[in-house]
Structure formats: C-alpha cells, structure tokens
Amino acid sequence: MDIKPKDILIMKKFHPCGGNEMFVIRSGMDFKLRCIKCGHEFMVPRNKIEKRIKKVIREE
After folding, report:
1. Is the distance from CB of 20 to CB of 14 less than 8 angstroms?
2. Tens place of pLDDT per residue across the chain (60 aa)
3. Which of 10, 13, 31, 45 gives 55 a disulfide partner, CB atoms 3.0 to 4.6 angstroms apart?
4. What distance in Å separates the CA atoms of residue 33 and residue 22, rounded to the nearest whole number?
C-alpha cells in the first residue's frame, strides 16, 4: 500500500476514544499515527496497520 504522511486513514476498528480516523505523521516500517478525535499519538508496525485500513483519504 502507498501511504504517505498527511494521509487520513479510516480504520476498520475504533480507537478506545470512539474515533476511527487516523492522521499519518510518519510512514516507513512503523507508522506514527494521531487519532483525529482525541489527539493521541502512537506508533504501530506496518503489517498491523495495513490489515486494519478500510479507506485512505489523500490530501492533494
């Protein structure tokens, strides 16, 4: 998958705060994501994230 910083990911599963939209801060072997609803930042391995993506919204 081609995911770049500043993309917004719509996830299949919800974050504990209830949001399912994540902002991509950094991509590579790991992704650094920010929950749009609560602002929590976290790192997740690429293989876990690619399974859980429902849709990618690209800002052009």
Report:
1. yes
2. 789 999 999 999 999 999 999 999 999 999 999 999 999 999 999 999 999 999 999 977
3. 10
4. 6
